[in-house]
Amino acid sequence: MPSHKPTYGNFFEFKKDDIFHNRIKAYPKVEFFIYTGSVFYNNENQNKEIPGTPNGHINLYELNVDRDTHASGLDTQLITPFVTKQGSFSNFKTISTSDFNTDFALGDKVEGSYPMTASITIERYDSTLTAAKQNKLYALKNTLDFYTILSPHYAYSSDLGNKELQPLNLISIPSIFYGSSIKKGSVSLKYYVTGSLMAEATDNKRDGRLIQTSTGDVIGVVLYNEGFLYITHSAGISTHKEAYKSSDSTAYSASWNYFANTNSNSSVSSSYSITLKGTNYIETITMFAHAKERQLNHSNNPTFISGGINAVTAPDIYYENSQISIKNIVSSSYKNHEATFKPITYISKIGIYDKDKNLIAIAGLANPVRKLEERSYTFKLKLDI
Description:
Distance between the termini: 16 Å
Shape: elongated
């Protein structure tokens, strides 16, 4: 059981009614803007604001963001994660078991790399069932069929279409951006041409369907828990044409199949935005620390007493004068008159200790609280975990 500590060294244990566990549900807004092959996250130039983090990415630990890649032309100053090959065979997931067994001896240091960043991924397939497309479809088949309870448009194969025969524009959003899941009803896809909004699709029905606002057509579905935007609508949405494919210079009509195009720098007239809200759960602890009457009215601060300590020392003894008086800081309304003494302290910090009396947190008050003997206070402490 945690405890809070007064200034004179005793510990007060939190009682059952002094600790409350809560969970805060937050909806952080996420926006991606895509233009000429570049992705921007929340309208930030991250190359400038967070060195070492590419635009459109989140840096997992924000490590190496302020370190030089070279130190005076010698070794880099970048820090790296590492493990030592031991009998437990702890290893990084990026290194295969066979490479780990053959390339490293016992005692060798196995290194990874920082920064570790993540961004959205756009994968585009035409109606031909290639091996790469098949692998993606098969990996999501059970998930898509599972969500048919929300809408039949999720079905892998139905009267609404067979996803193996449909063009596919798959946008993957790592969970580090949205937390536990994407909030239903928060997804908005906007397609711009020369800066003007040409088309927009939202999930305003909250059933996973991405519906084009101008026509009512269902262009795809959202996998809220898995972080995928599954776009299968390929009909043209404008007479505007551009070289959307990186494989050739042919101009194709703008369609949702080319939405979030990052493969070509030649489609300079088109830009795209993806807006959504995540769902984050933040566990919190609320604790009440009590400063009761006739408690916490002593301090070990040297300014608490009048004059110095007046310690007496000898070759074999050391002691302090036990008769030193406490400084009277009670103000008087009269000139040249000392008011009646009262023990007064000022509470400025509260230490939180675990059951083994290890300090685990310190709560600092914005302004010290004046504590008189006849007064009691209750301090509300909040800790995110």
